[in-house]
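Feature request, filed as a ticket because there's no other form

It would be nice if the structure record came with a short human-readable summary line next to the tokens. Right now we just get the raw output. Example of a typical job, pasted below so the devs can see what we mean:
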Amino acid sequence: MTTLIINAGPFEFEAVMEEADAPETCAKFKTLLPYKERIIHVRWSGEGCWIPLGDLDLGLDYENHTSHPAPGQFILYPGGISETEILLAYGGVSFASKVGQLAGNHFLTITKGRENLTALGKMTLWQGAQDIVFKLK
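Raw output as currently delivered:
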């Protein structure tokens, strides 16, 4: 099982890749590591933060997809009717965009630091974009 360290804003999290359920998504994301970006608050989906990736084509299809990730789960929407994106749920999420409900590939789950998810979400909502870095443990 692959473990990642995620630094988001002032918080550190540990997460495991869901390689058994989303092998293609996990393999593709590993090729991007270490991955640095900024995370912003979602516009449509509820209590979540996201990384918009525009028209980036990662060559992925749906696997282990959900519209309702649990707090601490990352999903990757591979693109199609909306832009490609990565979303982290910190509370209740019904994954959607301006075109309606979407489903993303659940590929990563936070296992340590969950107590800071709400603080990260509220910080992102009220203070704006936060740096985020994903790296192998």
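Something like this underneath would help us a lot:
The radius of gyration is 13 Å.
The mean pLDDT is 97.
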